[in-house]
């Protein structure tokens, strides 16, 4: 091979090597791009494969349970505690029109409730009697009244609030009385039991002579009561008698009372159950708690009264300080010996409270 031929061969070899380098670089670039593309494609393929599965799952869930549009979050109103209800009750009692045939505060009566209560009120008036009543819903403090501001003679219906005032103000040690812990306490136990259960006037007189009116006046401070005791008994309005029983409910069943009095309070409430001639107790079953005190007088001293007042708590009610139940009712009338009229009124009031 000549030198010229050798030189030409070297040139051709170099050109061939250059072409192969270009081809190899291109191949590597294509391979790299292809790998990247495959990675993206693989990711897309994987996502695409997952999407149908998710879609299928959603479809299955949709078929198994229909989609429900979200509802607005309901507003939950907490149940008032007794500590909240008691001041609300006093405020509503202040708002009542005491001269109205039928008034309410904190509640609006429906037509049926109004009609039935008006019918009971008319029953008294049609037979020549005067009657007033006040009921306080102890779940809310709402109050309803008929002639609630008319002063009437209490007769013995004042005895229970009077004794509660002695206990709550500390004029008597109600725990010691309940257990007859001392001779003096045993004597008070007898006086209180006879006064509440059989309305003994002599035992009430003995209590009143010993303690007077001061404990009751102290007890009523802050309730806005405008009438109180006069002698052993007195004229009060149904609104004020209801105030006394709201106070009694709070003491007997409320957390605000001294826990050390628990045994005494339980005993005291028990003495007011099944009290003599109670029209309120007459319309309630054994399972319900009725702590009440009736009062009556048939012309002695030219006084006429047939009254009843107290607390009604439905069967099964518990933790009344946290979730108060039932109501307070005060009825003042001059319908002597007319159990039928008072019982009918008590029943109609109970129906209205249950429907509220």
Detail the topology: elements first, then pairings.
Elements: H1 3-64, H2 82-95, E1 103-105, H3 111-126, E2 131-137, E3 143-146, E4 152-153, H4 159-168, H5 174-179, H6 183-198, H7 201-211, H8 214-220, E5 235-236, H9 238-253, H10 262-271, H11 279-282, E6 289-298, E7 304-313, E8 327-333, H12 339-355
Please report which band the strand proportion falls in: under 5%, 5-15%, 15-25%, 25-35%, 35-45% or over 45%. 5-15%
Helix/strand/pairing category: alpha+beta
Radius of gyration: 42 Å
CATH superfamily of the largest domain: DD-peptidase/beta-lactamase superfamily
Largest sheet, if any? 6 strands, antiparallel
Number of strands: 8
CATH class of the largest domain: Alpha Beta
Based on the structure given, which CATH architecture of the largest domain is correct? 3-Layer(aba) Sandwich
Organism: Bifidobacterium pseudolongum PV8-2
Signal peptide: 1-42
InterPro entries: Beta-lactam/transpept-like, Beta-lactam_cat
Domain Beta-lactamase class A catalytic: 132-315
Question: Can you give a write-up of this model?
Answer:
The structure is a single chain. This protein is an alpha+beta fold and 356 residues long. The chain has twelve helices and eight strands. The strands form two sheets. Strands 1-3-2-8-7-6 form a six-stranded antiparallel β-sheet, with helices on both faces. A two-stranded antiparallel sheet has the order 4-5. α3 runs antiparallel to α12, α4 packs across α8 and α4 (159-168) packs across α9. It is globular and about 55 Å long.
